[in-house]
Design brief:
The structure is a single chain. By secondary structure, this protein is an alpha+beta fold. It folds into two domains: 142 residues, Arc Repressor Mutant, subunit A, CATH 1.10.10.10; 74 residues, Ferrous iron transport protein A (FeoA) (SH3 type barrels). Helices cover 41% and strands 18% of the residues. Strands 3-8-4-5-6-7 form a six-stranded antiparallel sheet. A two-stranded antiparallel ribbon has the order 1-2. A hairpin with a 6-residue loop joins strand 5 and strand 6. Helix 2 crosses helix 3 and helix 4 packs across helix 6. The longest helix is centred in the middle third of the chain and has 23 residues. The N and C termini lie far apart (39 Å).
Length: 221
């Protein structure tokens, strides 16, 4: 997969779009929130990305990646998630911190290094957070699951992946043992967008809906 050299900020915007919505449209407000920038800054960057043929923006409908933009985004995600594997599996970096450190490495990784890293790791299919790693052609199998926020009371589910990126959020989920592979049961869903009460192992955990949207699960039915 051959992609042009782009600025770090450009790569971050494109990667964030895939992390937020895959191939679906994402609203600029959500993109700004994800990247911790103002909506004005996000609007300006989206305009520039559109001029480069990387995104398509339709007012009130959101922003989507073009074929070229998706190629770049998958390349960045491949580098970043491979580094997550290396940091977690070989350097034993704490689970909640690997995303942040991997983000620092992804922008300075040459294609030859990326492929050498993939070979060294045995071409892993998922990162430590459970998210799929695109192959060198940008292809990957999407996760077959739903957001935890969509699970019903009484459902017993297994966590497939955690799609959060902020270290403090990952740290919180780690402390609550909300990690890939963990099984849990939805005990209660409070009304008016209240938290979910979960049985995680032997403990009961309350998790707000906004955090539950970062967790992808599969029913054990």
């Amino acid at each position: 997969m051959s992609v042009p050299h782009l600025s770090e900020s450009t790569e971050m915007y494109l990667k964030a779009m895939v992390e937020l919505s895959g191939t679906e449209a994402v609203m600029i407000g959500r993109l700004a929130e994800r990247l911790n920038v103002t909506p004005v800054s996000a609007n300006e960057m989206v305009r520039r990305l559109g001029e480069q043929g990387l995104v398509s923006h339709k007012p009130y409908k959101g922003v989507t990646l073009t074929e070229k933009g998706n190629e770049v985004a998958c390349n960045v995600i491949r580098r970043q998630r491979l580094w997550e594997c290396f940091l977690y599996d070989h350097l034993k970096i704490e689970w909640s911190q690997v995303y942040e450190f991997a983000c620092s490495l992804e922008h300075a990784t040459a294609p030859q290094v990326t492929e050498a890293l993939a070979n060294f790791l045995g071409n892993p299919q998922t990162c430590p957070r459970g998210n799929p790693i695109p192959d060198k052609n940008g292809s990957f199998i999407p996760l077959d699951g739903i957001l935890l926020s969509e699970a019903k009371v009484g459902d017993t589910v297994t966590i497939l992946a955690v799609n959060a990126t902020a270290t403090d959020v990952l740290k919180y989920l780690q402390e609550k043992n909300i990690l890939p592979g963990q099984k849990m049961t939805v005990l209660e869903a409070a009304p008016l967008q209240g938290p979910l009460m979960l049985k995680v192992g032997s403990k009961e955990v309350a998790l707000g809906l906004s955090l539950a949207e970062f967790v992808i699960v599969k029913s054990n039915r």
